[in-house]
Amino acid sequence: MTGGNESCTAGPVSMSYLTCLTYILEEWTGVEHIGDYLSYAFYIVWVLFPLVLVFVLPGVIVVLFYISILVLLIYKRKNELKEAYSQDFWAGAGETLATLWDGHGRIWHGYELHGVKNLPKGPGLVVFYHGATPVDYIYFMARLHVTQRRHCSVVADHFVSRLPGFKILLDVFGVIHGPKEACVSTLKKGRLLAIAPGGVREALFSDEMYTILWSNRKGFAQVAIDAKVPIIPMFTQNVREGFRTLGGIKIFRILYERIRLPVVPLYGGFPVKLRTFIGEPIPYEPNMTAEELAAKTQAAVQALIDKHQKIPGNIFRALMERFQTQKKED
């Protein structure tokens, strides 16, 4: 071939590099008009790649979970002989994982945490809206550990403990599954405890309208009353734009109600702006009923949504908010 983009071979016929490559492939494969097939293939890839990507990105979170588990297993093996002499066997591993997740939140979502001053010095029940994944809670927990050296346990659905390899992760981070007595006990030990009353149903079937799906649940309110602790409402801006589900398809809702497992497909992993806002605490009042406290808490979480979330949520807008500045609250 000669220099430039003038010819492929010496001769009377001049061809561009692309034409030349197509000619060579036709000669090599024996397929005529191969250029048309290649153009069609490139078009299919161009159209399908974004669609495939939005279902692949959620896997990054799953990979991070298993990296976390691997770190714990390595740490446990390395320190088995020192366990008898350690006051806090998992302290180093917890520090490592908090740093890992906080770094991911900062880089991928520009994660911010506002209103930390609203957390009590002692025990308290943090009540939050559940996104399609609990990734925002993980970022909150990691940031709280890194900046405040505080730990917040969380109540999770029973199916989480049945995920392969997850038991060690749940044990280290104090994830509990209830019952009410275990939650009260955690709070009476002076710890923070978090719960999303909407649970898996809210995660799967709420949408970009950020509808709270708590039904008539008031068990969390009774826990706060029995432990005599305040409730702290919390909400993460754009949490529905980072990950979404196909929960609007009726068959998935029917299937979930029958088997009570999160079989609804998830997509997203978009690097949208995430900001977690911690609202003012709802103090313990001995004369308030669980029904009244639950309603007051839902209203507080709804107020955070109304204040900090544009409805309906929009993925492109949430992406653009990565480039906007906002006055820091703390």
UniProtKB/TrEMBL annotation:
Gene Ontology cellular component list: membrane
Transmembrane stretches, start-end: 43-75
CDD domains: LPLAT_MGAT-like
Record-level Gene Ontology MF annotations: acyltransferase activity
Keywords, sorted A to Z: Membrane, Transmembrane, Transmembrane helix
SUPFAM superfamilies per the UniProt record, alphabetical: Glycerol-3-phosphate (1)-acyltransferase (SSF69593)
Keyword field contains Transmembrane helix: yes
Keyword check for Transmembrane: yes
Pfam families listed in its UniProt record: Acyltransferase
Recorded superkingdom: Eukaryota
Ranges for domain Phospholipid/glycerol acyltransferase: 124-239
Name of this chain's protein: Phospholipid/glycerol acyltransferase domain-containing protein
Organism in which the protein naturally occurs: Malurus cyaneus samueli
Lineage of producing organism: Eukaryota, Metazoa, Chordata, Craniata, Vertebrata
